[in-house]
Amino acid sequence: MEAKTTRSSVFHTNYHIVFCPMYRRKVFKNDIAEHLEQFFRKQVEKKGWALITIDVRPDHIHLAIEGISPITRLSDVVKYLKGTSGLSLFKVFPKLRRQFRKGRIWSRGYYLGTAGEVSSATIKNYIERVEHD
Fold first, then answer.
1. Nearest CA-CA partner of 2 in 11, 41, 120
2. Start-end of H helices in the chain
């Protein structure tokens, strides 16, 4: 994905997000894993971001997403992804409610990391463009 622009900025963001179900239960298999993959692809696209990769493991999920605006609170991104996917899982797979009696599929925590993709030539090009504005 190329850099995105707003009126006042140019950005290219890459984030690696990992989150787990409550008690690290190994529930993301077969139909559930397939549903989650399709669901996250749709939600990320709906927000105008790009899903670089997704890896659904039985007890956790890895998402690599790019194009999230630098002014967007990343905790809100995670809250959105976990909240909407949890509701969808309970709706499509109602039997999951037996394993997650508190009404929450996801544990509270998550991992969020950044991945850089900027070369010195990119920085030089940006500085030269800004000097001419």
1. 11
2. 30-46, 74-92, 96-99, 120-131
pTM, whole model, 2 decimals? 0.84
63: closest CA among 73, 54, 74, 52? 54
Phi-psi region of 23 (alpha: psi -120 to 50; beta: other; left: phi over 0): left
20-52 pLDDT per residue, tens = 999 999 999 999 999 999 999 999 999 999 998
Handedness of CA 50, 55, 56, 62 (dihedral sign): negative
DSSP 102-126: TS--B-S--EEEE-----HHHHHHH
Average pLDDT in the 67-76 region? 94
Which SS3 state, helix, strand or coil, does residue 86 take?
Answer: helix
Give CA–CA dist 67/11, Å, rounded: 8
Condensed to tens digits (0 to 9), the pLDDT of residues 11-23 reads 888 898 999 999 9
Note the CATH number of domain 11-131. Answer: 3.30.70.1290
